[in-house]
Amino acid sequence: MSNAVQKKGSSIKAYVESVISRASVVRAEIAAASTDKKNLALKFIASEVLESSAILKKQNQLDLQSGEKCGLDSALLDRLELTDARINAMAEGLVQVCTLADPVGETTDMETRPSGIQVGKMRVPIGVILIIYESRPNVTADAAALCIKSGNVTILRGGSEALNSNQAIANCIHTGLDKAGLSKDIVQVITTTNREAVNELLHADGYIDIVIPRGGKGLIEKIMQESRIPLIKHLDGVCHVYIHEEADIEMAAKIAFNSKAQRFGVCNAMETLLLDKNIAKQILPILQDKFEEKNVELRGCEETCKILTDISIATEEDWYAEYLGPVLAIKIVDNISQAMQHIEKYGSHHTDSIVTNNQAIAQQFLREVDSSSVMINASTRFADGFEYGLGAEIGISTDKLHARGPVGLEGLTTQKFIVLGDGNIRE
Predict the structure, then answer these.
(1) What order do you get walking across the sheet with 210-214 strand by strand?
(2) How far apart are CA 17 and CA 331, in angstroms?
(3) Given this model, what pLDDT does residue 4 score?
(4) What's the whole-model pTM score?
(5) For every residue of the chain, which 3-state class applies, written as one string?
(6) What whole-number distance in Å separates Cα of residue 29 and Cα of residue 20?
(7) In sequence order, what are the beta bridge partners of 297?
């Protein structure tokens, strides 16, 4: 059975109904597939990606040419491009997912109750996952790999700017699934750029279990408004580093600089630096010199501007801003309580870090800051599935249900209670 393709003259509604119907048919197949069979499919897909390198680059060129005509900026074109190195990395990522432990079927918390029954939990796939994303074609392979390994059916809807690239990668995925003896419909890549298809998919709550959007804030907000299906998502990455008055100056400067300047356009980059008033005069001039090396524009509160006189004054909007670029907001606070109040008001519950040698203060920060990742004496840039040992991630979640933080294989599963008896009946 081949991937659903919108036929000329057919309605978007009919096309989407065909996609979700096919997904429903194969959900039991992939949920029951053995680890060996899923890994075999991933290895076949990786081989197809490498063997199809010339085709992938040819189709990618069509997208790049179209993107240039449509006026996509250089950053978007760079994310869109499939080079030999990126194609090799895509194949390597597929093979790496093979090495990850399979969470499906894992049984935990078994306990014998007074009645004699044994009660525990078993990890199982979510079911059918819709992933909507932009720009990077490699997400097609990454998302497919994680969903296959976690026993889920997936429907992928990439950006219109990467349509040809995504369909070429989809062909590799389908060939690999077929060679492993699995249905091609376990992974379906939407073939139309019509936005009505997205709306229809987001209303298919009787067929699709979870939606995962990956992209800019505008895309995610729109999906939140439209979807009838639960989401795993994050809107913003307004991450903070708080330098406590008992921090090591050298360590604090290194962590703050890395959190902001190691890479600008990522959701786990620091956007606001908070620091205690008792340490501000010591560390701010050091940080200013370091940030000048990377041409980072500094915007500070009134107290900061008294110490660094040649920077811009920060506005209320700056505390909420996810710059995704070489701009940093700085605020001096009186103590940890004021720092945590600022994070609670202006943060996005993504990633926040404290730098301190005071373990009691560090533990207070760890307990009371309500973010998906909270760190002590470490760069916010570590908030990443690979760095956390998940092997790979489908995205970051700032929600409290169902997954939180980097979402890897385990985040693409859920749990059910299992009960083992031996003729037990309730009195």
Answers:
(1) 187-189, 153-157, 128-133, 210-214
(2) 52
(3) 62
(4) 0.90
(5) CCCCCCCCCCCHHHHHHHHHHHHHHHHHHHHHCCHHHHHHHHHHHHHHHHHCHHHHHHHHHHHHHHHHHCCCCHHHHHHHCCCHHHHHHHHHHHHHHHHCCCCCCCEEEEEECCCCCEEEEEEEECCEEEEEECCCCHHHHHHHHHHHHCCCEEEEECCHHHHHHHHHHHHHHHHHHHHCCCCHHHEEECCCCCHHHHHHHHCCCCCCCEEEEECCHHHHHHHHHHCCCCECCCCCCCEEEEECCCCCHHHHHHHHHHHHHCCCCCCCCEEEEEEEHHHHHHHHHHHHHHHHHCCCEEEECHHHHHHCCCCEECCHHHHHCCCCCCEEEEEEECCHHHHHHHHHHHCCCCEEEEECCCHHHHHHHHHHCCCCEEEECCCHHHCCCCCCCCCCCCEEECCCCCCCEEECCHHHEEEEEEEECCCCCCC
(6) 15
(7) 327
Averaged pLDDT for residues 161-182:
98
pLDDT at residue number 1:
39
- pLDDT for the residue 135: 77
Decide if 411 contacts 394 (C-beta within 8 A).
yes
pLDDT beyond 60 at 2: no
Contacts for 292 with CB less than 8 Å, ≥ 6 apart = none
Q: Which residues, including other chains, have CB under 8 Å from residue 220's CB and lie 6 or more apart?
A: 213, 233, 234, 235
Note the pLDDT of residue 75. 79
User: Count of CB atoms within 10 A of residue 1's CB?
Assistant: 11
User: Over the stretch 232-280, which tens digit does the pLDDT of each residue have?
Assistant: 998 889 999 999 999 999 999 999 999 999 999 899 999 999 999 999 9
Contacts of 56 (CB under 8 A, 6+ apart): 49, 82, 87, 165, 168, 169, 172
**Measured between alpha carbons, how far is residue 148 from residues 41, 119, 127, 182, 229 in Å?**
8, 28, 11, 10, 21
Whether the predicted pLDDT of 8 surpasses 80: no
What are the tokens at 410?
A: 């385990």
pLDDT at 7: 57
- Neighbour count for residue 74 (Cβ, 10 Å): 8
Residue 330 in contact with residue 275, Cβ under 8 Å?
A: yes
